[in-house]
# Entry
Amino acid sequence: MDIKRLQVLVIDALEDVKAQDIRIYDTTHLTSMFDSIVVASGTSNRQTKALAASVRDKVKAAGGDIVSMEGENTGEWVLVDLGDVVVHIMQPAIRAYYRLEELWGDKEIPLAEAKGGKETRRAGARKATKPSMAESGQASAAQTSKSGSKRPAKAASKVAATKTAKKTAAKTAAKSAAKSGTATAGKSPAKSTGKSAVKKTVKTAAKKATKHSAPKRAATKG
# Structure
């Protein structure tokens, strides 16, 4: 397993169980047996054992190898050998007495640097998922332009529909008025013509009757 990946796994495992004063040292210039050591403190036997178990389980789950574990019985100083990385988990009094930092610690690796691969991946993922202000501004401007273009189109369609409805209503009214006027004009002359013809017939018949009755009256008087 890559040394950087292994260091990140060890730090995560120690932080999960609240290890104190985690330090990492590069040892490649001092020995060829391992590349780095990690020193961390646990406040009790139980915590040091839990820290060692957390390191073992996390490295195994990631496919790493556990070379050996020592000191689990007492829990004062538990050593976890991972091949390229050796982890020393110690209680504060034991750590102060043996002072491993003075033996191996002339080239310390900052904790942030050791976790840099993980933090860089997280930051990159956040930047990729979070849109920039320019992108969000462009998106909002596009939405505004779309809504603005839709509103005039809707207003224009409403005006056109209103004009069409008015024209249709005017045509219908004109047709109905023309029909009613034609019907009235057709009916009125017929009625007046019929009435005048009847009147003339009655008058003519009355005149003829008067002419025939006049001689008879004259003969009677004579």
Observations:
- The longest strand covers residues 20-26.
- Residues 163-222 form one domain.
